Amino acid sequence: MTKRSGRRRILYLAASFFSIIVFLFLVGSAGYVLLSHPKSPVPDHWNPLRALTLTAPVTLVTKYQLNRALADEAQCRATLSEAGVAFSEMEDLVIDQNCGISGRGELSRLVGARMNAVETRCTTALRLAMWEHHVVQPAAQDLLGTQVHALRQLGSYNCRRMRTAQGENSGWSSHATADSIDITGVELADGRTLSLLQDWSAPGPEAAFLQRIGKGACDWFRVVLGPNFNRLHADHFHLQGPGWGYCR
Questions:
Q1: Between β-strands 193-195 and 180-188, what pairing exists: parallel, antiparallel or unpaired?
Q2: Which long-range contacts (CB under 8 A, 24 or more apart) does 17-22 make?
Q3: Average pLDDT, the chain
Q4: In the predicted model, is pLDDT for residue 17 greater than 70?
Q5: Looking at residues 75-83, what average pLDDT do you find?
Q6: Which of 128, 141, 162, 228 gives 20 to 30 Å between its CA and that of 216?
Q7: In this predicted model, which residue has the larger pLDDT, 21 or 126?
Q8: What does the alpha-carbon distance between residue 169 and residue 177 come to, in Å, rounded to a whole number?
């Protein structure tokens, strides 16, 4: 290959690369305009530029929309309100660097199920509402032929250190900032009551339901602990927002 033909090849490759970059830029710009337009034909639940709609079908962009809502308290509260979730605003609770509740509110009703009023933070309420609507209610209809009327809970906020099977841990619990909530069971619309302590290992669809919703909680919470984890969780699901990603 001569020097001249070598230069031509280099120029050709450079021009081709530049053309590809320009093409991708134009495609990306056109895509952004399409997504950002008020009358975009892309459904909101497929559009990463749109706010999360709690009751919309779950798509590849739902987690991205959820993370945006979790990072913005105003958007978090608006998302809950739009879905009919009863989460009344309260002043933030400030105790010290380890304990308190930011984005504080009283949660008493999710999309389709009520619960005894519990103080928690908006991010926990939003994750719980996503779980209830997209996992709990479909599982109840599929496996039990009914709806969940209420969720039973042990609480969300508790200024304490972590507890382990060996005793109290030196680290602070996620309950100390209301970043988690403990669920003990459900009340069904047909009058039945299911609890993890009594029904987790019992034969029949009730156990299958509890096990499915426990596994499904991992789609919406980063840490999920239940009866399969240790004896401290034999009677409840520990559903935690922040964490390293653990589901058992």
A1: antiparallel
A2: none
A3: 88
A4: no
A5: 98
A6: 162
A7: 126
A8: 16
Residue closest to 214 by CA, chosen among 177, 242, 186, 243: 186
102 - beta bridge partners? Answer: none
- Bridge partners for 92 per DSSP: none
Name the pTM for this structure.
0.85
Cα separation of 198 and 41, whole Å? 49
Rounded to whole angstroms, the Cα distance separating 216 from 135 reads 6
Q: What are phi and psi of 154, to 5 degrees?
A: -100, -5
Residue 110 and residue 81 in contact, taking contact as beta carbons nearer than 8 Å: no
Angstrom distance (rounded) from CA 109 to CA 202: 29
Residue with tokens 């409840």: 236
